[in-house]
Write a structure and sequence with these properties.
alpha+beta, nine-stranded antiparallel β-sheet, 3 helices
Length: 149
């Protein structure tokens, strides 16, 4: 785990609402095709944001976004939306991007942060992918944190 300040940045994104699972994977694949076709995959950073906890929110209402960083002067097309990604301090966990390792990380991260005295901030938790990480089967889980206790 490392602590990193993620800077506020402009992003292009696609979103869906519904149960998490295979449809999120399909959205990510479609988004990567769009990003590649627009010459963004090699230079941008992809973030995914699962906005809702499916243990609390009904599956049909769970929101999921796939985003990529873009330059301030980049003009989007009608296949994506644009907004800004809020910056801030994040605990970054680099993991193997397998179902097992992602599930394991989600169960261990909050225990680790608590043991280290960090408080999770009220912002979305994100997964982050650079081109190199995608090519090598890794991702990073980025947990927003407040000052240590």
């Amino acid at each position: 785990m490392k602590i990193e300040k993620i800077e506020k940045c402009k992003i292009a994104y696609m979103k869906r609402t519904g149960a998490y699972g295979i449809e999120n994977f399909k959205l990510m694949e479609n988004f990567k095709i769009w990003a590649s076709n627009n010459n963004l995959l090699d230079t941008g950073t992809i973030y995914t944001i699962a906005h809702d906890n499916p243990e609390i929110v009904p599956p049909q209402n769970c929101r999921y976004d796939v985003c990529i960083t873009i330059s301030n002067d980049y003009v989007i097309d009608n296949l994506v939306n644009e907004t800004e990604l809020d910056g801030g301090d994040y605990a970054i966990y680099k993991i193997n991007h397998t179902t097992e390792d992602v599930q394991k990380a989600w169960t261990e991260i909050f225990v680790d942060l608590n043991q280290k005295g960090y408080i999770v901030d009220n912002k979305p938790i994100m997964e982050r992918y650079s081109k190199d990480m995608i090519d090598n089967g890794y991702c990073e889980i980025c947990v927003p944190i407040k000052n240590a206790i």
